[in-house]
Amino acid sequence: MQSIEQFYPFLNQPFKAVITAHQKPDGDAMGSSLALYHFLKNLGHDVTVISPTNWASFLEWMPGTKEVIDFEDNREKAITIINEADYIFCLDFNILHRTKHLEPVIKESKAIRILIDHHQQPDTPSFGYGISDVLMSSTCEMIYNFIVQSGHSNLINLDIAACLYTGLMTDTGSFRFPSTTASVHKIVAHLKELGLKHSLIHESIYDNSTEGRLKFMGNAFLNRMTILPEYKTAIMAIPKTDIYKFELKTGDTEGLVNYLLSIEGIKLAAIVIDREEERKWSFRSKGNFDVNIFARTHFEGGGHANAAGGRSSKSVEETAEDFKTIIKEYKSQLTQLK
Ligand code: 5GP
Ligand code: MN
Question: What's the CA-to-centroid distance between 174 and ligand 2, angstroms?
Answer without folding.
Answer: 13
